[in-house]
Amino acid sequence: MSRKITDLDQLTGSADVLLCDVWGVIHNGVNPFPLSVEALKAARQRGQTVVLITNSPRPAEGVIRQFDTIGVDPDCWDDIVTSGDVTRQLVKEAPRALYFLGPERDLSLVEGLDVDLVEPDAAQAVLCTGLFDDETETAEDYRELLDGLSQRGLEFICANPDRMVERGDRLVPCAGALADLYVELGGETRIAGKPHAPIYREAMARARAIRGDADPARTLAIGDGVQTDIRGALDNGLEAIFIARGIHANQYLKGRVTDETRLQAFLDAEGVAPAYWMEWLA
Predict the structure, then answer these.
(1) Peptide bond preceding 216: is omega within 30 degrees of 0, i.e. cis?
(2) Interatomic CA distance for residues 126 and 97, integer angstroms
(3) For the chain, which domains are there?
(4) GO cellular component annotations, sorted alphabetically (predicted)?
(5) Which of 49, 204, 235, 237 has the smallest number of Cβ neighbours within 10 A?
(6) Which sign, positive or negative, has the C-alpha torsion 64, 197, 269, 265?
């Protein structure tokens, strides 16, 4: 069973590097979580290295701009690696004519790359960062479009593997939901973000650049998504801390309290075994 902890400093002696998720752990897309920010600041003051590892489809500069907007203290991290950062390599390897599926705010993903953004009928591959309007649409709204693209054998590059994310007090769909549908329709996807290896390799490389060394055995990954944050950590040889009050909370909350039996049953059903769990990062 996963061990419950209440304070991140309980694990100071067992970890030099913290790979921490962003959405659902540090903020909800609208407001920062002060306890989480302070916990990471305190970890850095104790000598631990904090690399934020997020499935944001934008390069790290876009995440930093969002932090500035909503008020996340920059002292809570040493470096940031995004799914957008590592997806740029997939774009470099893809055909030049891409159909860009996602909101305009994510176009920074292809800045400086030798690509042509074209209409679906002229595309040789698809680059997806999300839904056009995640406030009103769902993945099912894209079934006909994706079916036509998959029937042509177009590769689908997913820049944000998350299926959903918190925005304020709501859950909104992400590009990962479209990638799931594309596979269901018989299409092929390419993904570099969590839970896949490229983003973890890059995060550990960043940690080594800061510390001079980064031992996976003394690295902890922190996140609230079982199939991205926790599955990704375990598949890449890292111990994980599951943050319970994130996107899955409705699976095991009883009123305002986490039912530990239901939580463990949920983790078992998802096939993941994080070493630790916390209500909130604190």
Answers:
(1) no
(2) 9
(3) 3-84+195-278 (3.40.50.1000), 86-191 (3.40.50.1000)
(4) cytoplasm
(5) 237
(6) negative
- Tell me if 24 sits within 8 A of 52, measured CB to CB: no
Q: Do residues 185 and 146 make contact, with C-beta atoms less than 8 angstroms apart?
A: yes
Structure tokens at 141: 């709204």
Question: Which tokens is 45 given?
Answer: 């003051």
Q: What percent of the chain has pLDDT over 90?
A: 97
Q: How far is CA 184 from CA 151, 177, 180, in A?
A: 12, 11, 6
**Mean of the pLDDT values across residues 202-210?**
98
pLDDT at 168 over 90: no
Q: What's the sign of the alpha-carbon dihedral 230, 27, 112, 187?
A: positive
In this predicted structure, what is the pLDDT of residue 166?
Answer: 85
DSSP secondary structure string for all residues of 47-86: T-EEEEEE--SS-HHHHHHHHHHHT--GGG-SEEEEHHHH
pLDDT beyond 90 at 70: yes
pTM over 0.90: yes
